[in-house]
Automatic annotation (TrEMBL):
This is Cytochrome P450. Its cofactor is heme. Keywords: Heme, Iron, Metal-binding, Monooxygenase, Oxidoreductase. It comes from the Bacteria. Belongs to the cytochrome P450 family. Heme binds at residue 396. GO terms for molecular function: heme binding; iron ion binding; monooxygenase activity; oxidoreductase activity, acting on paired donors, with incorporation or reduction of molecular oxygen.
Length: 448
């Protein structure tokens, strides 16, 4: 097998970092603290002043943690602390019976994300994005991250609220979420080392409030309305009732669920679309292949099935740059894994970034090769060592939604523009809450 090229990733350190170096390297990005053996070890461990955590890379352990024994490995309180200002106690961060009850209440809302139903909304959002891009001055490099954030946020906005997201709202979300990730990351590092918080949690909370402000008015107006009901996710959440008590979500609880769906529905998709466009910009032949399979007629829901090249590019993007690079779980009872004894309260980490870049799972794992998803020799790895959406009962319910959105966006942009990279301007992956390019992705676009 020969990969098409090897895109950027932080070269792992030769040896494990000291406690101080791990702090300095992890201050801005989790993946920058990894060392060479991190990518091949079956199970590693690390002891920080506030927490012991274990990284499980071996596939049977991954399956045990995320699937077969998922009930005894719930999401860790560390994750709740990281996300609390943004999403509170919602279906993403809750555990146990609380999670089951919340999931039962929010499940009807996801009927509004049925792929055929949302196709026209997605197509309209992509058309609006393309119109915006065509109106740009393309003599200068184009920042891709804000555009990807706008289309992804616009799609989920239309699905949740039955209205489009304007450019000012999209820019505010992009800027505020970038700020939130930076502040929350630093708060977390200080907490792990039992150091004073230095106000980072407060700054993260203010950034979250900026994001909430973009849609808080819509939620409040609809929650207070006795008529003018919508047919969307927001209305389903307002109408939801607790399976045992029959109680409705309070307005604050609706905001927490909306914030969760909004975060999950736009940030991860925006990250993946940004990286996919960068990878395509490095490969003109793949751009031609995508144009050829999409044809000249407008895409329809039925025609998406034929976008094999586009789909494989997106899959390979998620393998190389999983938006959620680390999935954190809690040890709730004494347990043995391999040669290690884990006590309650310890953190278990399953890392899509590491599992999907492990050479025991994928040949030439750091290389870009969309064809690997059609390679029979890699079929087992693609089934068991590919987890950008997680696995088991907490698997992302929006996987199909994200894929459809990405296919429409990538095919639409490539049909309208030639993409090219800028020599010497390579993006650097930074892993915080999600995986983004720390210095942004800038490309040359030429109208077709």
């Amino acid at each position: 097998m020969t990969v098409r090229f090897t895109p950027p990733y932080p070269p792992p350190h030769a040896t494990r970092s000291s406690l101080l170096k791990r702090f300095l390297r992890g201050w801005n990005s989790w993946i920058h603290a990894l060392f060479d053996k991190s990518y091949t070890m079956k199970m590693g461990e690390m002891h920080l002043p506030a927490l012991s955590f274990y990284i499980a890379n071996e596939l049977p352990l991954v399956r045990r943690i995320l699937e077969t024994d998922a009930e005894i490995f719930p999401k860790h309180a560390f994750l709740h602390d990281l996300l609390d200002p943004l999403i509170g106690n919602s279906v993403f961060s809750s555990n146990g019976q609380d999670w089951h009850d919340q999931r039962a209440m929010v499940n009807p809302a996801f009927s509004h994300t049925a792929l055929k139903r949302v196709f026209p909304m997605m197509a309209a959002a992509v058309d609006d994005l393309l119109a915006t891009m065509r109106a740009r001055d393309l003599s200068q490099p184009v920042a891709i991250d804000p555009l990807a954030t706008h289309v992804a946020a616009d799609v989920i906005f239309r699905t949740m609220f039955s209205c489009a997201l304007d450019a000012d709202g999209a820019r505010e979300i992009f800027d505020a979420f970038h700020d939130y990730q930076k502040q929350a990351q630093r708060h977390s590092m200080l907490r792990l080392y039992r150091l004073p918080g230095l106000g980072y949690q407060g700054r993260a909370r203010r950034a979250a409030e900026r994001i909430h402000a973009v849609f808080a008015g819509i939620v409040a107006a609809r929650y207070a309305a006795t008529h003018d009901r919508g047919e969307d996710i927001l209305q389903s959440l307002i109408d939801a009732r607790h399976p045992s008590t029959g109680a409705a979500f309070t307005e604050r609880e609706v905001m927490e669920q909306i914030s969760t769906i909004f975060l999950a529905g736009h940030e991860t998709a925006a990250s993946a679309i940004t990286w996919a466009l960068y990878l395509l910009a490095r490969d003109p032949a793949l751009q031609d292949a995508i144009r050829a399979e999409a044809g000249n007629a407008p895409l329809t829901y039925e025609s998406l099935k034929g976008l094999t090249v586009t789909r494989n590019v997106f899959r390979e993007t998620l393998r190389l740059y999983p938006p959620l690079s680390f999935l954190v779980r809690s040890v709730t009872c004494p347990v043995d894994m391999r040669d290690k004894h884990l006590e309650p309260g310890a953190m278990l980490v399953v890392s899509p970034w590491l599992v999907q870049r492990n050479r025991d799972n994928f040949p030439e794992p750091h290389g870009f090769d969309p064809d690997r998803f059609d390679d029979p020799a890699q079929a087992q790895a693609c089934r068991h060592a590919y987890l950008p959406f997680g696995k088991g009962p907490r698997v992302c319910i929006g996987a199909g939604f994200a894929q459809q959105e990405a296919l429409l966006t990538l095919a639409g942009i490539v049909a309208s523009f030639d993409l090219a990279t800028i020599p010497g301007d390579d993006p650097e992956p930074i892993s915080r809450l999600t995986l983004r390019a720390g210095n942004g992705v800038r490309l040359r676009l030429t109208r077709r």
